[in-house]
Amino acid sequence: MPFRLCNAPATFERLMETVLRGLTSEACLVYLDDIIIVGRTFQEHLNNIRKVFQRLQNANLKLSPKKCRFFRKEVSYLGHIISADGVTTDPEKTKAVVYWPRPETVHDLRSFFGLCTYYRRFVRNFSAIARPLHKLTEARSSFNWTEECEKSFNSLKQALITSPILTYPRIDKEFILDTDASNEVIGAVLSQKIGNEECVIAYFSKSLGKPGRNYCVTRKELLAIVSQPFD
């Protein structure tokens, strides 16, 4: 497979998914040439490493030892820090937000949104916080930076650099889904009670279109349930 062809990443991803087919997310995750192998115990982790290595060997794929890290309790993966406690944002990725200058154009604002949206499941009421900024990117809207926009901009930055650790879902515990709705956005929080603490698994929020804004509050909250992308 030649490098630099536009379809090379998709081709390679398809190859890796074929090679590791049958291994569940409880054993490994793969994105292009980044593979993360997990396990609840040391022995389970070791067995999963053997399984992945055997698949790669059978496919005649080789690893670079200097790029491999073994038996880590915490790893950085695709802009996230993954540990036994859960998943959080990678400070190395989000620290750029702290020094992000105030957007001067729609293009600047969309660049900021690109980073924020990637981590939106870590931010409660993301759509409500970002609504004033989102309006500036809508068609036929003039780029008029107001105090409300400045507050929204700073609130998003603060939310990203103080985002919580999202816990892993446990099938042996009951799930709790809280929903909320306003005139313009809907939101939800998926969590579980572990011990005496209610632990968040993910946040969801979405701006409403014109038809959705005409719904009553009950229907809006029902819409939050069927719209959420928790998986």
Summarize the structure.
This protein has 231 residues and is α+β, with helices and mostly antiparallel strands. Helix content is 39%, strand content 20%. It folds into three domains: 7-71, no CATH class; 98-162, Reverse transcriptase/Diguanylate cyclase domain (Alpha-Beta Plaits), CATH 3.30.70; 175-227, Ubiquitin-like (UB roll), CATH 3.10.20.
What does this molecule look like?
There is one protein chain. With 231 residues, the chain is α+β, with helices and mostly antiparallel strands. It folds into three domains: 7-71, no CATH class; 98-162, Alpha-Beta Plaits (2-Layer Sandwich); 175-227, Ubiquitin-like (UB roll). 39% of the residues lie in helices and 20% in strands. The chain has eight helices and eight strands, in the order H-E-E-H-E-E-E-H-H-H-H-E-E-E-H-H. The protein has helices at 8-19, 42-58, 91-98, 106-118, 126-136, 147-161, 210-213, 217-227, and strands at 28-31, 34-37, 74-77, 80-83, 87-89, 175-181, 185-194, 197-207. It has a three-stranded antiparallel β-sheet with strand order 3-4-5. A three-stranded antiparallel β-sheet has the order 6-7-8. A two-stranded antiparallel ribbon has the order 1-2. A hairpin with a 2-residue loop joins strand 7 (185-194) and strand 8. Helix 3 (91-98) packs antiparallel against helix 6. The longest helix is centred in the first third of the chain and has 17 residues, at 42-58. The protein is globular, with a radius of gyration of 21 Å. The relative contact order is 0.09. The mean pLDDT is 88.
